[in-house]
Amino acid sequence: MSIWLRDMATILRKANVPVIEESYTRGPYSGKKWSQVGFRGQGLGSFRFIIWHHDASPQGDSPGALDWCKYMEIAPAGAVWVCSGCNGKHASGTWHVIAAGLSNHAGTGGNDPRKGGNTWGVPIDGMNAAALGIETDHTYNESWRGKKKQAQLNNLRRGTAALMLAYKIKPRPGLIRHLDWTNGLIDGNGRFTTYGRKNDIDGLDLTDERARVQAIMRELAKANESPKVAGLRRRLTRTRAKVGELKESGESTAGYPTYMSRLRDRISKLTKG
Which residues contact 132 (CB under 8 A, 6 or more apart)? Predict the structure, then answer.
């Protein structure tokens, strides 16, 4: 099986995330658009994870890091590079999509010997084939404070949420940082033998970020709902309020629980997929 995420830019734009679709002017992918690029022409083996990285470029805007991601020896180094504005050329948090297929970003990791070298169902050192790697213009000890960095972080979260929603990936365990793949100590995993090899993405708590991405996914899901589903949700909300009023006044709520259950079932059927 070979998976190519050629609809990535479309998904991001629908979620109001700024996107630049990159092309290649030299190297082995010269003349190709991002949607045609995968390491040595390969797609992903599966798509079950998104890994956040930073590029360890100097603090502040480092637009030159994009070329490094596109043209290094084992490029593409990640499928996306999220900038902090490229010195004012565009919005901070713009997603530069550079590969639709396989990219080199995760490297060695996941090799907890107590689990036979199989973590989250991914073989030792095999995360590249199962994950979309997102590089960011960020480095160690660089603050996320300030309008520009917050915009970058918010678009990183929103774009990640849009892709996870579209591809039906749950933030736990589907969203991890590079350090989680090399260090372990999350989701019931012990300390990996590659502990300390990587410590990016710096300054972000995984539990908090998973919760934030999950909240954005719920927001996007509701925004994408059909008018019929939205109407059913409004009816369910009104009915809950009515039941609360009846309980407070001591009146019977007979029949309402069954009615609300039917509404939930209809919503579930219409949104299943």
Answer: 5, 44, 47, 49, 50, 51, 79, 80, 163
Let me know if residue 1 belongs to a domain: no
**pLDDT, tens digit, 9 for 90 and up, residues 155-197:** 999 999 999 999 999 999 999 999 999 999 999 888 999 999 9
Prediction pTM value = 0.85
Q: How far apart are CA 272 and CA 265, in angstroms?
A: 10
How are beta strands 80-82 and 95-97 bridged, if at all? antiparallel
- One domain for residues 197 and 136: yes
Local structure of residue 45 (DSSP, 8 states): S
DSSP SS3 for 52: strand
- Tell me the residue range of the domain where 243 lies: 227-271
Q: Which of 273, 246, 267 is nearest to 168 (CA)?
A: 273
